[in-house]
From TrEMBL:
This is DUF1217 domain-containing protein. It comes from the Bacteria. InterPro entries: AGR-C-984p-like_sf, DUF1217. SUPFAM superfamilies: AGR C 984p-like (SSF158837).
Amino acid sequence: MLSTIADYTRLTKDMGKSLTQVAKQPDVSRETDYFLSHIGNVKTIDDFLKDYRLYSYAMKAYGLSDMTYAKAFMRKVLTEGIANKNTFANKLTDTRYREFAAAFNFAALGSNATKTTQATTGTATQYVRQTMEQKAGDQNEGLRLALYFTRKASTITTAYQVLADKALTQVVQTALGLPSTISAADIDAQAKMITNRVKLTDFQDPAKVTKFVQRFAAMWDATQAQSDNSTNPALVLIGGASTSAGMDIDMLSKLQSIRFGK
């Protein structure tokens, strides 16, 4: 089994090629063709919600598959839109709903909401990316998290955005060597802990994002390897030398003491 870093490097070395390979898979291609050929015919929110195939495709594209059943909830998201801070989507902590309402902006565009680039090819691109991450997660949950963080990193401007997203929280906590139990702490204390250790503006730099993801992957694989006596390939890649499972604990301690980006 390849390490998380090896898997991540293989997929991201040529992301365009990796996404094209996923897009060409028969099930993905079939659903994307249906979506692109039918979404333009949708004129109202009712039309959208009634076509389960279109609606569920869009929900998956924006990472909301687990909320596909909640049509009344999503109707409110779409009906109110994102025009001002008091709309339903803008009041929700989870930014995925704002992204969805922006992509299918019936509130502002009416019957033309499904004709925008964001609603059509933009959504299809999102769907392919989500599918790649999901399939990666079927084999390696750490890889799914790494790919997700890479996609979302440039949108992070505050620690509270991290804490509002379970996947981002898990990546950051793991990379910084923070126990998941700190999630029970005061939210402001958690935010301060993150900003004390990470310069969030670094996430606008792809090279620094890659470095952070490699750190996460090393910590993730080291944690997974603690239960056996095998060599940890992630730490070999990061540290440049072989290390035993017993050495992993020492490496974890060292990684925990390093402030990222400093």
